[in-house]
Recover the amino acids of this structure.
């Protein structure tokens, strides 16, 4: 097996050999690779691309690509290590196994490609030539093991020139982010931040897929298929366990007695307790619960939100006051889509796009009975409370707080909805243009904020947790 990474050697190949082996085939020069095409295959000349940094061509075994039994798409891209590893990570390839040469590969032409899980009826293969910084992807539609496809595979010859490219460190070897927090003022309030480290850096290659929930002395971190449990220590967070989930989940909220509700948008909500799945519901959407755990609101994009009630541990759903979000003629309420919902002891905070205002983002504060009380933000491009995408909200003893993932800002309003001001996340937390992921107000008034930021050495995205007080 050949994997060109982390000190592994590039395979030595006689570049002249293909000219001898494939003298009866048409040669297609794609810059970063050459393809010696068997007579049974054709390629799409109109959609073929070839530039200094990218090339792509699609082969098919019939008269036209759409009606062919098999199609093979070959791509070559000059990209940095982060982009390639991100694709591996997204396709569930364990990077440590990849670095150690323990992943399954397939010989295609003069290189060994990593086998990726089948997706949308296609089989994917990827190869990275470290010395040149070129990544290769082959997508196969059809029976990948038949002789016709194998014949084409043997003629795909990648360029193995060494251009002196240097790869970024692996995530476990990279430089962890060490933020330096600094107090900031908003209005008359002094906001005091604190960095809360993980015992080992929490890294991956996604910046918008993390949610968390603190309960008693534990913090639960949700990331797609994994629910991580951390013990809350004086000096930071100590990893306790990881629960591997059957599906991907994107939202977490807290119910009664430590029940965690995990949501995945269009599919059913599940409950997790004591490190294992404890509940299967029929409720769909991302579920935000009232602090009591007795009821909540489910929402997802332009799908109509539902009021959810906890009846002896089982969840039931019924229509709420906002309906017809995706129907201009029958819409009830101002929202065309919803970004986030937070239920406090007194209010329901709904953030989303306002249909009659060119989908401007605003937060509307409702009573628990569903009566709109006042609006936060969305004042327009000349106002300090222009909002982008709200990823977290809270009610405090002095008013309201929201974090804006797009704007990288923390916004503050008084109890009557008057805007106080905003603080740039970089100024408060000592970060460098992170994505603001999630926020939670604790019972003592302290507010937790989770961010993700790309490391300077491009080794990974790192998850960072902070707290702040003063509002």
């Amino acid at each position: 097996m050949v994997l060109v990474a982390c000190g592994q050697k590039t395979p030595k190949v006689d570049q002249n050999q293909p000219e001898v082996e494939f003298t009866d085939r048409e040669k297609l020069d794609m810059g970063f690779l050459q393809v010696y095409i068997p007579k049974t295959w054709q390629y799409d000349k109109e959609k073929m691309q070839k530039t200094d940094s990218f090339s792509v061509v699609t082969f098919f075994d019939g008269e036209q690509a759409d009606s062919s039994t098999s199609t093979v798409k070959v791509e070559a891209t000059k990209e940095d290590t982060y982009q390639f590893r991100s694709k591996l990570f997204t396709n569930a390839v364990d990077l440590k196994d990849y670095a150690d040469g323990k992943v399954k590969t397939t010989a295609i032409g003069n290189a060994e490609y990593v086998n990726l899980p089948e997706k949308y009826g296609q089989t994917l293969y990827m190869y990275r030539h470290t010395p040149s910084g070129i990544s290769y992807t082959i997508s196969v539609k059809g029976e990948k093991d038949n002789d016709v496809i194998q014949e084409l595979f043997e003629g795909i010859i990648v360029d193995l020139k060494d251009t002196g490219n240097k790869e970024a460190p692996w995530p476990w070897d990279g430089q962890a982010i060490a933020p330096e927090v600094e107090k900031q003022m908003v209005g008359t309030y002094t906001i005091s931040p604190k960095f809360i480290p993980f015992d080992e850096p929490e890294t991956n290659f996604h910046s918008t897929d993390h949610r968390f929930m603190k309960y008693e002395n534990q913090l639960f971190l949700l990331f797609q298929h994994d629910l991580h449990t951390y013990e809350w220590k004086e000096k930071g967070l100590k990893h306790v366990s990881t629960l591997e989930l059957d599906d991907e989940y994107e939202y977490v909220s807290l119910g009664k007695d430590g029940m965690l509700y995990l949501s995945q948008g269009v599919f059913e909500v599940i409950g997790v307790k004591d490190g294992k799945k404890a509940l299967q519901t029929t409720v769909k959407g991302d579920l935000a619960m009232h602090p009591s755990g007795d009821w909540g609101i489910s929402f997802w994009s332009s799908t109509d939100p539902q009021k959810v009630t906890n009846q002896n541990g089982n969840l039931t759903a019924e229509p709420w006051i906002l309906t017809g979000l995706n129907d201009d003629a029958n819409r009830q309420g101002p929202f065309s889509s919803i970004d986030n919902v937070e239920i406090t002891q007194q209010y329901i905070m709904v953030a989303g796009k306002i249909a009659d205002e060119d989908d401007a983002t605003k937060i509307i504060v409702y009573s628990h009975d569903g009566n709109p009380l006042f609006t936060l933000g969305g004042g327009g491009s000349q106002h300090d409370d222009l909002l982008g995408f709200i990823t977290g909200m809270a009610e405090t003893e002095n008013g309201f707080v929201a974090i804006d993932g797009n704007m990288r800002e923390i916004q503050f309003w008084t109890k009557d909805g008057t805007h106080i001001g905003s603080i740039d996340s970089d100024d408060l937390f000592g970060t460098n243009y992170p994505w603001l992921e999630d926020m939670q107000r604790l019972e003592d008034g302290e507010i937790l904020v989770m961010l993700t930021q790309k490391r300077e050495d491009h080794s990974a995205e790192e998850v960072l947790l902070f707290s702040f007080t003063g509002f």
Q: What stands out?
A: Residues 128 and 275 are 38 Å apart (CA to CA). The radius of gyration is 26 Å. Residues 17-158 form a domain with the Protein Transport Mog1p; Chain A fold (CATH 3.40.1000). The helical segments are 17-21, 81-90, 95-99, 147-153, 425-429.
